[in-house]
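Hi U.,

Before I forget, here's the chain from the pilot set. I'm dumping it here mostly so it's searchable later in email.
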Amino acid sequence: MYETKYQRASNVEDAAKMLAATDDGKFISGGQTLIPTMKQRLAAPSDLIDVRNIDAMKGIAVDGSNVSIGAAATHAEVANSNDVHKACPALCDLAGMIGDPHVRHMGTIGGSIANNDPAADYPAAMIALNAQITTSKRTIGADDFFTDLFETALEEDEIVTSITFQAPSKAAYAKFPNPASRYAMAGVFVAQVEDGAARVGVTGAGSSGVFRHGEMEAALSKDWSEAAIKNCKVDEAAMLSDLHGNAAYRANLVKVMAKRAVAAAG
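Structure:
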């Protein structure tokens, strides 16, 4: 790793000021992406601003159908939250599939969505649940938050502080994990939200990162069943193709995972 300076912020405003005073600083929470990247010498921030212990970014709260999760909540905390399980068990299932126990106890939901890895799990859930992502400056809808591979609408000095969404009528997540990394080669989160409308978030497969599948959404909004999406098309031209699987393989995985998710949601 390159030499870097470590600073711990006590609040969101403090973190922003610390970053502004650096040459090329980066925020860090669980560090499950940034630290390995630094070890591989693919990143060399001058300073690391630790936001993990900011109280305003911690905690999980459920008020009626409104679910709020602090950005510093770990994957393990989300997976094991009784409140989240009552409101949206699919999100608990998703969090429990991430990495291994070490990753789940260190990685945070805010760090995951801010990094927007194209194979990460949470972005699919954020899209399908129509989540609102609150930052140190504003609130951004999930549809506008994720912009491309490893890219989001966040500004350089902007910090994700919390995620909120309305509990869905039904939801489920199914993914085909890479056997080594546990990242999704294709993961599909389906949710039935207000007025019976369906939303479908797909991760791990798209060449531009997480995306919604409009045709499946329309079909499931009319008939929530595996049969409803049997003839839906997945555009191979929009799929990733790499040593783990070509575009045609991933397109097929998307359909298979979508059917499994719909069946699991009931």
